[in-house]
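Recall the central idea of this unit: under ordinary conditions, the amino acid sequence of a chain determines the structure it adopts. In this exercise we apply that idea directly, starting from the sequence alone.
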Amino acid sequence: MEHNNQATPHTPHLPSRRERLRAFMRLKSQRQMALAGTGIFAALSLALGAGLMQDRAQPDVVKLGKGVASVETMPVSDIEPVMKTPTPRESAMGDGHASYYGTELAGNRTANGEIFDPHQLTAAHRTLPLGSEVRVTNPRNDQSVIVRINDRGPYHGNRVIDLSYAAAQEIGLIRSGTGRVSLALIT
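Accordingly, the structure predicted from this sequence is:
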């Protein structure tokens, strides 16, 4: 028994005109949907970008009396009498590890809505009310700084507070990055 190894010619099936028209209309519809989605995405991106740029471009305005400011240099003590303020009361909160925010987060919003400035004496704490003031002391060198809580955190490990760069620099935590500190709430 011999096999005929010749392949029978196969004619390809061509789609009908109706099938081709349906496929064309489906592609056209998909293209229109993709263009519309891209357009909407571009419009939203532009609107958000413009809003952010406008927010950063507008400085905070502070009214100065009748709007007249002096450029003369004069010590504040010559203008206002020196008043001794009473020493604030402090409540010890214990101790733990602290870390600090670097400059990479500058410009981001904090939990209380402020723009984060690493050169201000601020900090993040998980539970203290925003606006609280805390004395943070580095027991290795006995240096301390008073910070204002304006953000939430830290959420890494067993750290109890995240300091701004300026606050960490005040108490000598920059080189190590983290360190053990004592906290006292100023009441």
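Residues 17-57 form the longest helix (41 residues).
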